[in-house]
Amino acid sequence: MSERKLYPSDLSDEQWLLIEPVISAWKGRHRSVSGHQGTYAMREIVNAILYQGRTGCQWAYLPQKSATYYYFAAWRDDGTDQVIHELLRCQVRERARRLEDPTLVVLDTQSVHAAAGVPAATTGLDPAKRVPGRKRGLAVDVLGLVIAVVVLAANTHDNAAGIALLDHVAEHVGGNVEKALVDQGFKKQVVAHGAGLGIDVEIVERNPLDKGFVPQPKRWRVEQTFGILILHRRTVRDYEHHPSSSASRVYRAMTHVMIRRLTSANTPTWRDQQAVTM
Length: 278
Hints:
The protein is of the alpha/beta class. The protein has a domain at about 100-205 and about 215-235: Nucleotidyltransferase, domain 5 (2-Layer Sandwich). Helices cover about 45% and strands about 15% of the residues. It contains 9 helices and 6 strands. The protein has helices spanning about 15-30, 40-55, 65-75, 80-95, 160-175, 190-195, 220-230, 245-260, 270-275, and strands spanning about 105-115, 125, 130-140, 145-155, 180, 200-205. Strands 1, 2, 3, 4, 5 and 6 form a 6-stranded mixed beta sheet that branches. Strand 5 (about 180), helix 6 (about 190-195) and strand 6 form a beta-alpha-beta unit. Helix 5 packs parallel to helix 6. The longest helix has 20 residues, at about 245-260. The radius of gyration is 20 Å and the shape is globular. The two termini are about 35 Å apart. The mean pLDDT is about 90.
């Protein structure tokens, strides 16, 4: 059997070494009764998941789709995807000469359209943005790295998303976070909830004289992260049956981003590829 074509989303040897210990340890804990270790190489499974996230293709278009989905769901359900994400996040922050965990986070939400197969019970209509689908809430640090993710129906108020995000932040990074910046979509309930967790929530108000989009100091980082997610086509819309899968897609997309940062690798854009072929 000939080797398959390599894709830009594939992990290099250097990149695979960053996450291989976690995957190998997981595999060692999940041996079959017969001792059989499976047919597929774990690196190929990871490459398939990253390829799907980057290109947005359907499960049916992946080779070994059943095996790939099995590992996607298993790592989603037991938190392995988040373990890998947190390991890389700490390394990126340390390389930037920062502590592993931040003292300041930025919260925001983004409503995205849901695909036709997404259960209606997990979606809603965002009345302000007129988007039918789901609401994706992020907490990021000042480097734009994701600290927490929540996925809710799009008709959920930002207060509920903000409260859920603060709970996740407090759970994941303990008492290190002292301050959270939010926009005017979040209200006093979020401020009060943050105070109960020991987090000072500041509502950053927009200058009424500003017209159009004007980046706010530090808060613009979360907008940048939303923009990065859109580069991964599986997150442009919400295609996932379970909201937990949607959250996992965010962690995996950012994992791919951080792997490239740690190995100083760049993925060519379509503009770069077009310039080469002209």
